[in-house]
Request: fold
Amino acid sequence: MEFKRVGVLGAGNIGIGVVTDLVLHGISAVVVDISDDILTRAQAAILNNVRCVPLLSKTLPRITNDEAKQRMELTTDLQDVASCDFIIENVTEDWALKKSVYENLDRVAPPEICLGANTSCISITQIASATTRAANVVGIHLMNPVHLKPTVEVIRGFHTSDQTVDTLLQLFSVLNKEAIIVQDMPGFVSNRISHLFMNEAAFVLQDNVATADEIDMIFKKCFGHKMGPLETADLIGLDTVMRSLDVLYESFQDPKYRCCPLLRKLVHAGHLGRKTGRGFHVYPEG
Amino acid sequence: MTARTTEPSLSTAEGIKETVRGFILSSITITQLRDDDDLFDSGIVNSLFAVQLMTFIEKRFGIEVGMDDLDIAHFKSVNATTAFVLGKNGRPGSP
Reply:
């Protein structure tokens, strides 16, 4: 299958990474969000990502600013994704919002088009239930920064067809990404486990067992992880981590997923991690 | 009288080096950093920090990092970054 145009819903952190990856690999992206301001900021971030590719990757394609711009169509009209070959949804981790988006998307996109649900924790089967094409809905858990991460967790919902999985794998083949396919449960493999680490790290900090630096250093220097759990939470965005924990708590009804009060407090204080310059750590303005 | 902090001069090699070192130290968890320590190979920061450092020197020194300059080797240490800024004929940016 040829992918000429891919629809990308949501131009936040992950959406920006998805569009970066698509345009780098010669695929045009129709980027949808709710305001021109968000789209303008997203375009600037995408162009900066494209520009910095030589600094961060030896293998990704190099393209010019103009080429990247030509491969991006920014819009606030969902109808504009109707002619896309595949659609990737990256809206905020909020079930009410996702449900509404999928109901509208289902009306707009031709019935044979596959929808990739990029979610941190919400069940793919649940998301698919908001459409009349459950077989064409597949879960995609892309890691941040998307264009620099070679592997993706792919989630097969209850009704996801083999053909839909194959279509997604063909798209990932163009993007040089490997997929690890898992079954559907909230949080899948990655976030069901990683969010426990991040949340418990926040509790350890809250209990004054160690500083944020020390907690992260233990993971990096003792376990050999590239990043510590608090740095990872800052990179993801503390608001997203909090919402994911809330989804896991609600889904499993298990207190082990209750969100650390310190994490919630930072979110309410507007300290959301790297994107606001402060989270568990402080990030000087570059 | 208003108290003033002394900022390093951006027109001398030592001032540029001090500014670069100050930014790096404000971004990492260790307090001791030698000017030739490799930030990336040593695991002090991950490669994403190169983008932060590059953005900082563009703004602080008023230089533009072109496509041909986008090599992580230019930003791997205090010395390398200082040499890069000097090589670009760095001039002070707006305060």
